[in-house]
Design goal:
Strand order of the largest sheet: 1-8
Radius of gyration: 30 Å
Strand content: 5-15%
Distance between the termini: 77 Å
CATH topology of the largest domain: Rossmann fold
Low-confidence stretches: 467-480
CATH superfamily of the largest domain: P-loop containing nucleotide triphosphate hydrolases
Shape: elongated
Mean pLDDT: 87
């Protein structure tokens, strides 16, 4: 077995002894493994959601073409996740000459250490095995990165300890790129790298001795002049430029958020209603289309991930305090989690004047209205609206027990019937019924059919001015 080979002689007796196997480049290795996966119907990029018809086919084409490629896109578009998934296209293990710092091919070493080892020991040269995970090297480009960091430099201490002159190849301290020989080298934020360092990368790609297969950057092209640019000779030698994007549908966004978010805390059982998942995702969609938010910076997919985690925590705190058996988030929990939004958006001048928290609250209001339209739709809410217009008022506590809230909500005629007609929650589930009730009421507020203030709670629309959205901040006991 190949994994039992300890010396070069033993390795020659395995499938690695075939020149077609041991002499192929990393690009050829990945191409062959990708072809096998496609023939067998396996997903080469498991866990990547929403890119099946856009980004993934282009990456597949780049690998089949044996191209170095760049992923170009805004923050939070799964670029790093895609790059790390490329490891799955490498062999499970790869033989190298023992002690080699740059993964020397036992049959064709390129370092002086490797060549001397073969000259001295021949078929008795020892072999080590490198798992595929160790063949991936990732580096974040910053202006202070040096040639020594990426490519390497002469190490005087190494020369002194080994008794070598400085011109001896054995005195070289290898940088990250040579150490990724026969592997994958990913460089994030490439435009931030100094031009002279990019020239060094260009020289490596031009010579082709080190099997670098890809580099990555995530800057918007509009930012090139502000943050730097890719030098033309380097860009010319990167085979494919692949654009990434944010989820194009709410369903894709929800799937990504559910996959990445930490919500299963292992304590009180959690039940997140589908309309809460939808609302949280719509906050990000609303932000991406808001003129007050800097579109060049983008709105990362980490926003809904952080938001649902914070919403879950607020609901968890309430459930623990009230000793409830289930954690069920409400709309008020979304309002309590505005800090998870404000830190994820960069504002334009108009937005800065209004303030991040005001913008975040407005995004939640608009998202609530959109979720209300999607889940409640054409359900008849006239009875609810009429009750408020005739003088009815309702104030809710954000931290009250679900059964107490449900009793108070029962005074609003038609509310539970609307929930039942829309299929939002079963009657036997008080916690979800309360959450669904908040969706209906806050949705009517968002659509300006009723009003809500922190002092009064839900009431009729006040003609003198626009209704304020802020019931999530009220904390007295529920009353009518």
């Amino acid at each position: 077995m190949a994994d039992h080979a300890k010396t070069l002689g033993e390795l020659k007796q395995t499938e690695w002894g075939d020149p077609a196997r041991h002499s192929r480049t990393v690009k050829s290795e990945m191409r062959q493994n990708l072809i096998c996966m496609l023939e067998e119907g396996h997903d080469p990029f498991p866990g990547i959601v929403g890119f099946d018809d856009t980004v993934i086919p282009r990456i597949v084409n780049a690998i089949l073409s044996r191209h170095n490629f760049i992923l170009l896109g805004l923050r939070g578009q799964a670029k790093s996740r895609i790059l790390r998934a490329l490891v799955g296209l490498l062999e499970a293990e790869m033989p190298i000459l023992a002690g080699s710092e740059i993964n020397d091919n036992p049959f064709r070493p390129i370092s002086k250490h490797g060549r001397l080892l073969i000259e001295e020991m021949g078929d008795d040269a020892p072999i080590d095995w490198v798992p595929r995970e160790q063949r991936y090297v990732e580096k974040l480009a910053t202006p202070d990165v040096t040639i020594a960091d990426i490519i390497g430099d002469v190490d005087p201490i190494k020369a002194a300890r080994g008794g070598h002159v400085l011109s001896d190849e054995l005195t070289i301290h290898y940088g990250l790129l040579p150490r990724s020989n026969r592997g994958i080298f990913a460089l994030n934020e490439l435009p931030d790298l100094a031009g002279k360092i990019q020239v060094g990368l260009f020289n490596i790609l031009q010579e082709g001795d080190i099997q670098v297969i890809l580099m990555v950057f995530s800057a918007n092209p509009e930012d090139y002049t502000a943050r730097g640019k890719i030098i033309t000779p380097l860009k010319d030698r990167i085979g494919s430029e692949i654009l990434t994007h944010y989820p194009v549908s709410i369903e894709h966004g929800i799937a990504i958020t559910k996959q990445e978010a930490w919500v299963d805390r292992g304590g009180v059982p959690l039940g997140i209603p589908p309309f809460i998942e939808d609302l949280i995702e719509r906050v990000a969609f609303e932000a991406r289309g808001d003129k007050r938010v800097d579109r060049r910076s983008g709105v990362s997919q980490r926003l809904p991930i952080s938001l649902i985690e914070s919403v879950t925590s607020n609901a968890e705190r309430r459930a623990i305090s009230n000793r409830e058996k289930r954690v069920v988030p409400r709309i008020t929990d979304v309002h309590a989690s505005l800090p998870a939004i404000t830190g994820k958006i960069e504002l334009e001048y108009e937005g800065e004047l209004q303030g991040a928290e005001a913008i975040a609250g407005d995004l939640v209001r608009r998202a609530t209205g959109a979720t209300f339209d999607a889940f409640v739709g054409n359900a008849d809410c006239e009875e609810i609206v009429s009750w408020f217009n005739e003088g009815g008022a309702l104030k809710m506590s954000a931290d009250e027990r679900s059964d107490v809230c449900l009793k108070g909500l029962g005074v609003v005629p038609g509310l539970f019937a609307t929930i039942e007609a829309a299929g939002l929650a079963p009657k036997k589930d008080p916690a979800t019924m309360v959450s669904a009730s908040e969706l209906v009421l806050e949705g009517l507020v968002a659509n300006k059919r009723i009003s809500s203030t922190e002092e009064i709670g839900y009431t009729r629309v006040v003609p003198e001015g626009p209704p304020q959205f802020g019931s999530g901040g009220a904390n007295p006991n529920l009353f009518t």
